[in-house]
Design goal:
Blueprint (H helix, E strand, L loop, with lengths): L10 H21 L6 H14 L3 E5 L2 H11 L6 E6 L5 H8 L3 E5 L10 H14 L3 E8 L8 H11 L2 E5 L7 E2 L10 E5 L13 E5 L2 H11 L21 H31 L5 E2 L6 E2 L5 E4 L5 H10 L29 H9 E4 L7 H15 L1
Parallel strand pairs: 2-3, 2-4, 4-5, 5-7
Antiparallel strand pairs: 1-8, 6-10, 7-8, 9-11, 11-12
The structure holds pyridoxal-5'-phosphate (PLP).
Pyridoxal-5'-phosphate (PLP) binds next to helix 3 and helix 4.
Organism: Aureimonas phyllosphaerae
Protein name: dTDP-4-amino-4,6-dideoxygalactose transaminase
Keywords: Pyridoxal phosphate
Length: 377
Amino acid sequence: MNQAISFIDLATQRDRIRDRIEARFSRIMDQGSFIMGPDVMELEAQLSDFGGMAHTISCASGTDALLMPLMAWNIGPGDAVFVPSFTFAATAEVVGLAGAAPVFVEVLPDTFNLDPAHLRRTIEETLAKGDLTPRAIIAVDLFGQIADYPAIRAVADEFGLKLISDAAQGFGSTLDGRMAGAWADVVATSFYPAKPLGCYGDGGAIQTDDVGLADVLRSIRVHGSGSDKYDNVRLGLTGRLDTFQAAVLIEKLALFPEEIEARMRIAARYSEMLDGIVAPQTIAPNIVSTWAQYTVRVPGGRRDAFMSSLKEAGVPSVIYYGKPLHRQTAYRHWPVGGNGLPVTDQLCTEVVSLPMHAYLDEATQDRIVEAARAALV
Ligand SMILES: Cc1ncc(COP(=O)(O)O)c(C=O)c1O
């Protein structure tokens, strides 16, 4: 009997860094520095170095990391924020939470990321309709691949919009060696455990080069604090990252560059071996993806059979995402660009993600590829 294959293996990495994390935990326990302890400051400085941005504001989740900039810019009722529909709910959820309207935009069939031409048309349509004021764009680095920021930034500049990078999956991904912060006003990421850079609970971070915005975000993080935490100058949140999670992240960040390299190597091997069997997400040669997911398209209504066959062979697979946001009960009353989103709809019927993590060995990968091949003959 073959060993069960994990979809994401967090245990191998944990065993590499367990001693170092436990030493940090023990110091935090001794100090009682549970909230905004020294590890939080240390992590923020390291993340700024890593992402090449002046300010990092750690926070309680990736969702807060997206919501807080909207709050800081006073985006709310009557405003439109342009988002993909082929993404995790939080990307659009934060717009609704801020009181504004998410307007759903199409993605490209090969990269699965925001389609800049459709984005432009949707903004023009919104302006022509006149009921909402365009304020911002949230581009998602889906499955780890950096979005087409040069093109999206040009659209944002043309219409005077803010640009947020939802890098929950793609924090660390590069285009021509540059991360999303080279183009976006704000980079927001999640440290949910299954993310390429994850902690052992919930966590997130916001990065920006704008010092004024960074100050407002730090205030929002602690209930809109002013000169001290009992001076409340705006609405805010309990938005802090706790010190234990910062300690985990410091140790994981030290391994992250080598893990991104491993993910790139594993993804390239998948793509080579799966060539002619299934169509994977396309990555341009000038992109380094963090490969949060390795996702392929199985067309022709064969996805369910493909997944069952993999399951029988002991290979787990997951659908990200089976239902687009613009068709979800909580989101379907918000506007959709153009005449609907046919690419998004199609992707939702075809995509399936295979096991992917930095510690996937070649023998296991061979088993997965063999099962995929057998499933489709
Ligand atoms: C694209 C995307 N945006 C936002 C989030 C929200 O992050 P969190 O779960 O940390 O709130 C996630 C992940 O969960 C995500 O995948």
